[in-house]
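Batch job 17 of 40 flagged for manual review because the log was empty.
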Amino acid sequence: MKESIVLLGSTGSIGVNTLAVAKHYNIEVEALVAGNNIDLLNEQIAAFSPKTVAIAREKDKARVNHSDVRVGTEGILSIIEESQSPTIVNALVGYAGLAPTLKATRLGKKVALANKESLVVAGEFIDMSLITPIDSEHFGLWYLLNNRPFRKLYITASGGAFREWEIEEMKTATFADALKHPNWSMGDKITVDSATMTNKLFELLEAKWLFGTADVDALIEKKSIVHALVEFVDGSTTAHFAGVDMKLPIAFALKGEVTEPILSPVDLLGIGELSFAPIEEHRYPIWSIKSHLLAHPHLGVVLNAANEVAIEAFKKGQCGFFGMSKIVLDAYRHFEDVVPSSIEDIITIDKEVRTYAMKR
């Protein structure tokens, strides 16, 4: 039987790279789920002939060149429910990715996961045995570990769009400024999260759930060549070097093992000097809750909900760059005593946090 996948978030960078890997390995794409980029979706439909398609908005339905077009969350969940594919690639952005992850894992399907928020918000309630991360940092950790006993895990951060800016300059930074990442092009939300370092808090939580440890930390490595490091109990530390290309973790997630070149080897002499730096709270105020969050990972739902509200406020010019962190930290402290005991609790808390944060 031919391998097949369902791809959620097909028009984003992860989705486009996933389709390139699927084409390379002749993997069938049973269904495509996209947001509002209908032109690119139509190109993907022509190239991969999916059985079903889902989009974000009802008003775009007539523009999609397919006979079976579903809409919204319900449309996505129906596709997963009906699919024959054993693997769901979830590259959706934000809280919207949680329900599809839950649906897929409850059906016993494997999830190649690029949607950080699924684990951040509800890692406690997700079967980790069905999750394979499509994330260069977590892939790097997995690649290095090989079931050897470790003392601590490290992931790296680029430092984001404002890593070279003076603090006073950052206070007047705009949403457009925050999208100018020095190393690569990503979606709006993840690029802003990179600038605030919220993205790394998310990834630390992901690592906690994926590898079962709170002994995780992050360092700034501006060239984005080292993605992860593992400090083993024997005192040695190993680093994972690779080019900035998501096709490698995607290929491993879809194939299980890769025995052919996916990336060009790293040019060690061409790299020049490498350096690591700490993540400083005066530049990244959100980092002040790192230790508390790792000790109370169930508060990821608070962090995520407040962060999505804060990004929207920044985008609309309702707060400054550092105002986002103020909104998030205020909500985090206000809700720090909540302890969800079910997915239903997660949904309730998410709504309450958003309502609270919108009033800040």
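Reviewer: the log was empty due to a logging misconfiguration, but the result itself is present. The first strand starts at residue 4 and ends at 8. Unflagging and moving on to job 18.
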